[in-house]
Structures are given as structure tokens and as C-alpha cells.
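User: C-alpha cells for both sequences below?

Assistant:
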Amino acid sequence: MVLEEILKEKKNVYHLNGAEDNVISDAEDRLGLEFAPEYKDYLKTYGLLSVGAHELTGICPSKRLNVVDSTLREKEDNAAIPNDMYLVEYIGVENLTIWQNTKGEVFEVPYKGSPLKIYDSLADYIKSM
């Protein structure tokens, strides 16, 4: 996995245990989409990931960091978010959010704004941290 190699170069990396396939499928069903293969691999391996000051969404009990709860909450607040996207990270600075679409592309979304593509993959985004 490309992500594992990237994370070896990072400091302050923390993660949970990976999520089971059925839990990932349930999350996809609740969101009405299919995660990009890269995000599914991330969920299976890490469940949830923190890199330095960045906390990525995942499969966990926390409503703030759970991909389903956080995606539904943010989509309710911003109608410009397409149906094929899920929240990857809530930055907090000026309510900036980071999203991934089902093709794996990563987008930055300002508060109540429209998505702007910033990376081709989650691995590229994490590499930039």
C-alpha cells in the first residue's frame, strides 16, 4: 500500500484498528455511495488516522470523526457538495473541509463554497501534510 510508505516518513502518526468489510459497506450504504478503492484500503488498514495536526475521518465511535456522521452533517450545511463525495478532514480554519469523490480525487471546500480539486488521490494529500 502506497499510504504505508508515505506514513513511514511522517511523525506523530496515530491510528485505530482497521474496519471490517461489512462495517465499511454499511457506511457506504448510509451515505448512498461507494468509497474510492484507496479510501476503502485506508479504512481496512487504519480505521481512522491522525498525522501531526491532521485528523482524518474514518470508521470510529466519534461523531466528529466518523465519516458517515461528519459527511451527513457537512452536506446538510452545504448544498454545493456533490452526492459522490465524502468528508476526509475538517480543517477548522475558516471552516475549510477536505473531501474525496468516489473516483479518488481530493477537493478543498471553503465554508458554503464549491469544491476545488487539489490532489489526484488521498495518498497525495497525506504526502503533502
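Moving on to the next sequence.
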Amino acid sequence: MKLYGFPFSPNTRRVLFMLHEVNAPHEFVPVDLTRGEHRTPEYLALNPNGRVPCLVDQDFILWESNAILQYLADRFPEYRLGGERPRERADIACWLFLNAAHLGPAVAHIFAHTIRLPEEKRIPALVENARAELARCFGVLEGKLSHTPWLAGTSFTIADISVAATTSVAPMLNIDLSPYPSLAAWDRRMADRPAYQKTFR
């Protein structure tokens, strides 16, 4: 397998985390977003959406990081990271979608309007709104994790991998997890995993 991605992208790191968890042999192919390599004809032929990451598994090409997590969970079923019954899979999907639709975009707005964009293009109101959305999402995560060790219950799954890639940027963006003790404890457990350390350190 080949994974095309930008080394500092949370979406790319989400898939790298998964690849390390299942010990999947892979080649990482850097795509430098700062040089526009995601907009080259060669890359767009693989991923017409022009984003990272993109996984190539022989003749199968797949993009969107959460879809790749689901594929790899099915590809390596012995690790039982994708859920085995319909309700388990649905519960996992709930967290994947929460991350993709709410948590991830909020973090992306904070990053863009505090670090990535030049000062004159930053919009403080977007950061304020994004931080409010994060607080809402963190409240949901805290509620779940105050009752279960992992997002989908008693077992570590791709739901945890997906969300952990997003929360990993919290220190860089001055996002404080301490008001959410169960979430903060979960975040520390994630950081202790060897696959996490290979990916994020």
C-alpha cells in the first residue's frame, strides 16, 4: 500500500496512526501542500478532490481519511477496530461523522485564523465560533467518556483513532482539555499507545 499525504496534516496522521496500529506494510509518499503538489495533474488523477490523504492499495484508490479507516478496519479484521455487529458499526460511525462534520472543521478554522493565514486575512469571529463549537463537541465526548473507556464502549476502535488525530493539535492551538477530565484522561491513554507515538512524535 501507498499513502499519499502531508506529514503535518491531522487527516494524514489519522491514517498513519491506523496503519501503525494494524502493522500494515506501507510506503508513505509526501505531498507538499505548501508547494501545491496536491493540485498537480498527477495527484489529481489519484484524488480528484485535491486533498490529503489518499491510499492506493494495488488497483484500489481511496480518499477521505475516515473512509480509509473503515477500509483498513475491514482489510485487517483480526484487530477488530471497525466493530463486528450493526450497532457497534453504527456507534463507531457516529463518532467518525461527528469528527468530520463538527470537531475537525472547528479545529481547522482555529488553525487557519490563528496560524496559517496572514494577519490581515484572519477573522477573529470565526475563531470564537469555532471555539464554541469545540466546547459543545468536547461536552459530548466528555459525557461519553465519563461512562466508557473508549468512544465506542469497552474496546479501542477507529472512532478513537479518528478523534485522537484531531485532539492531537490541541496544545499547538492553545486548546485546553483540562475542563473535561474524562476526555483529557482518554487523550493521555491515546498518547501512550505505541502507534500514536510513532505517528505524532
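User: Anything stand out in the second?

Assistant: The beta strands are 2-5, 27-30, 54-57, 60-63.
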